[in-house]
Design a protein that fits this description.
- This protein is an all-alpha fold and 70 residues long.
- It has one domain.
- It has five helices and no strands.
- It starts with a helix and ends with a helix.
Length: 70
Amino acid sequence: MNNEIKMYGCMIDDFIDSVEDSITYKTAGPLMVVAGLMSDAQELMAYGDTERARQYLNKAKALLFREMRG
């Protein structure tokens, strides 16, 4: 299995492209998307889905690091 799929559950560039097209990103900005991903991860953990929660946190970090780089 592709390492990127293991880490993020998808291809991260495709995910970031879709985020940049989202209404949340366009109106509230990337940090709100990061916050949403973290909230989703908390919800997944509450239901015991730690693997998907880990992937959501990795997506949040990837988006955050991308924004930090400019």
